[in-house]
Amino acid sequence: MRPTLLCAAFSILGPLCWLARAEVQVLTGSTFKDVVGGGHHVLVEHYAPWCGHCKALEPEYNIVGDTYKADRDGVVIAKVDCDAHKALCTSNGVKGYPTLKWYSKGSTKGEDFNAARKADAIVEAVNQKAGVQRRIKPAVSAVTELTSSNFNTVALDPAKTVLVFFGAPWCGHCKSLAPKYDTLANAFVGDESVVFAKVDATQEADLANRYGVTGYPTLKLFGAGSGEPETYDGAREVADLLRFVNERAGTERNEKGELGKGEGRLAVMDAVLAGRSIDAAVVAELETTAEGLQGASKRNADLYVRAARKVLEKGPEYLSKEAARLEGLLKGDSISPEKRTLFMLRKNILRGMEGAAAAS
């Protein structure tokens, strides 16, 4: 899981809203005192958004955040943006970034936390201080390894958008990019139309030469239906890469894998519904329109057709009831990535159809 804001209702619910979470908690000047000095040990990273060392620490620190739960371990992993909360960081004795401070249970006095800035070293130090024995969960990569034997099948699939990372094991910039690339791949888990892949160019020199790779890392995007790749030459931060992939793939994913409200919606299907109540004629027209589409568009169009058929069977109230049911399911943590993506797409389409029905 990725960092999120504390509950908006923090002042009402108190710490109960984050007790069961395993993630990095984002603290502010007003919420800091509600977390630190209470019934949990707290490790706080004081950082600045522009700080290079902070950016390098972020993926490691996120792993630490995913390792501990407050209600289970008595440990909270948190961070404070010192640009936004300068007074708080100054009062905590912060003079450089990143600065890690350990606050023992019941104490508001921070101790310098001097473990190496790697997830395993930080976890080992937290375990010693808190008297627990947590281990880092083995990383499951969503990045597809490509070789000459599977490159054409994966990268040149006309139904998919594929970003390929050409790198080398000894390349320092590749090592820096790798955790960010994993974050991107994890954000798209469950969406079969977008693939993140990598090639060890030292082992697959023919592939590297074939696509003009002369330095590392090199990122090339193979768009759906296009055999000619586009070389990415923008900034190598998660936000920039995410924006690039979303633009090229027509998706609206954020870093946590959540879909924007417009993803899944299709203009050609919405046009059929505009100003009309759903009846047998509308369903037939939706079916005909869906037949002319391919790839992800065909998948989404079929979801329109499925929903419209249900409206004929159960009435227009089906749209709002089913969307509400899906929203409830999405709040759980036990759904597979594939199911989560499907539920988010269906919810977006149902809400769009509900709006069209209300306007008819």
TrEMBL record:
It catalyses: Catalyzes the rearrangement of -S-S- bonds in proteins. It is an enzyme of class 5 (isomerase). Its EC number is 5.3.4.1. One of its GO terms (cellular component) is endoplasmic reticulum. Keywords: Disulfide bond, Isomerase, Redox-active center, Signal. The keyword Isomerase applies. It comes from the Eukaryota. One of its GO terms (biological process) is protein folding. Residues 1-122, 124-250 form the Thioredoxin domain. Residues 1-22 form the signal peptide. GO terms for molecular function: protein disulfide isomerase activity. Gene3D superfamilies: Endoplasmic reticulum resident protein 29, C-terminal domain (1.20.1150.12), Glutaredoxin (3.40.30.10). NCBIfam families: pdi_dom. Belongs to the protein disulfide isomerase family. PANTHER family: PROTEIN DISULFIDE-ISOMERASE C17H9.14C, PROTEIN DISULFIDE-ISOMERASE C17H9.14C-RELATED. This is protein disulfide-isomerase.
